[in-house]
Structures are given as C-alpha cells and as structure tokens.
Amino acid sequence: MPILIILNLPDGQPSILSYDGPREGASNVLNKYWTLPLTLVLVAILAWPAPGASAQTLGGATVYVNGQPASTTVMIQNGYQLVPASWFRGLNVSVGWSEQYRSAVLTTSSIQIGFPAGERHSDYRSAGKTAWQRDNLDTRTTLIGGTAYVPLAYTARKLGFGVQYDSRKGAALISTGEGGFVAMSQQKQSSDEELLWLYRITEAEAGSESYAGKVAVAASILNRVEHPEWPDTIIDAIFQVDYYNGKAYYQYSPVLDKRIYSVSPSQETKRAVQEALNGSDPGLGAIVFFNPKKTDNAWVRSRPVTVKIGNHVFAK
After folding, report:
1. Structure confidence at residue 223 (pLDDT)
2. Which of the following CATH numbers is that of domain 58-175: 3.30.457.10, 3.40.50.2000, 3.40.710.10, 3.10.620.30?
3. So what CATH class is 190-315?
C-alpha cells in the first residue's frame, strides 16, 4: 500500500511525497525523501514574517519647516526618508485613508495624491482634472501599526512645497511658501559673482527651455552644492573638471566650449534662478541633467531618472 505524505508550505502550495515500495526499509526511504523538504519547510517558516511584522526600522528625525524644527518618526528605504502620512497635517494638508483602494490620501486645494499600501507608485490628480496620473517611486508605501509611511521629499514636492537637504544639519528643509528657507537664509546668500555664473550657466544650458526647465537646471546645481560628493560652492560646482587617464571631463558643456562667457542671461532666466534659490525644484532633487540626443555618456545615463522636462532628462 503506497505511503503518501503531503506538506503544506507557507505559499499555500502542497508538496507531495509518495513511496510505493514495500514497507520493509520504508523508514530509510522516508528519511531520504524527508531531508530536503523538511529543510525547505524550516527555511520557509523561519523566513516567513509574523502577521503585522515589518523588516523596516523606525527612528527619529528633525525636519525644518520654514526654519522651525519639527520632529517626526522616519524609516529609511533605499536611501530615502519615509514619514507618517499624517505628519503632513502639520503643513495644512488633509490626510485620510481609502479603504477601497487601501491607500493613504493627501489633499490640498491644488492636488490629491494617493499612496497605495505596499506599492511603489503614487496616483495623483490635479485640481479641476478628472484623469488620474501615476508616478513610479523608488520606495514602497509601508504600513506599520496602522500608520502609512510615505516618501518625505517626493510628497512635499508633489504638494507644491520647496525641499532642500542641508548637509550641515543632516536634515531636510521644507518651505511652504510662507517663510522660505529661513534655516538656509545665511547659507543661500549667494555673492554677486556666484549669482552671475549661476545666471550664465542656466542661460547657456537652458536658454531655449521652458521656465520650469530653467528652474530645474539651476536647482540641480544648487543640489550639487548641498551634496557631500560634489563641490560646496556654486562656482566650484559649475567649473568642476575631473581628470581620468589623462582626459579632462567637464561637468557642463558650456564651460568646455566657453559659451558660458558669451551668453546674456534673459530676465526669465534670472527669475528662474531666483526661484530655485528660494527652494523650487521641478527636477525633484536631481543633481545631473542631460539631453539624450546629445550625449552618450554612460555614467550620466545610468543615474536614476527623476523627471523629463523639455529636452532634458533629470537624474540623481
């Protein structure tokens, strides 16, 4: 009579073992067949999370809103900070939960954003629009203890707030437009010379781009200044040249071909630069940008893309 063994694994799929030989020596055969399945079962059980458990680690952080410190719980995911969706209520954002879509929903007078639990995207709809659009994200909306955690910088920018990272404070700075980046006011007091070169490089790189494209280019340079891996002044960031195997690599082509010295910044370009200095960043935290039709640089093309504006692709 055959011996039939059924193992129910955590994924719900049964594993069936059958022995149809004589009973004599059956224990030896069973030992042989049980070894691997039992090992797999033990591994699966040990790796299977308990209900409601999370592999994420929570910590505390300070975010500066219009120069004022605000404490919050954070988790780090793929290098990004996630905060409770409810934290944005302190910025006059309506925050709710859609049971139908299992989604945290943030709403202002200009936009509504949904963050489905467990997903790596957001769905949003601008005021007056009926169609929903989707942004793919580098993070996954995570539920812990009934609290939905959403990406801090992305959410703030999507809601229309200015976002910067202060490497000296090790903290995110958010401007709601009611006070500007007060915490960065001293740091952002650019000299006349720095302002001149920021005007020129923005004009040379984005003179024919839209206003948003100009703001994004200027903001990407400011993001470099704030990033620990790049020069910490505007002028040094613009004129940075790296040498590798005897070859010079310029960060910006208008510096290489010297167009930066001959352009005349338009009034729109100057306004765009000032808006970037005030915290606006349509490039969503980008530190590089490129025209895919004009560059074959493998490194810049390998960077994670944040947004495409006009002819430029922006990336981190």
Report:
1. 92
2. 3.30.457.10
3. mainly alpha
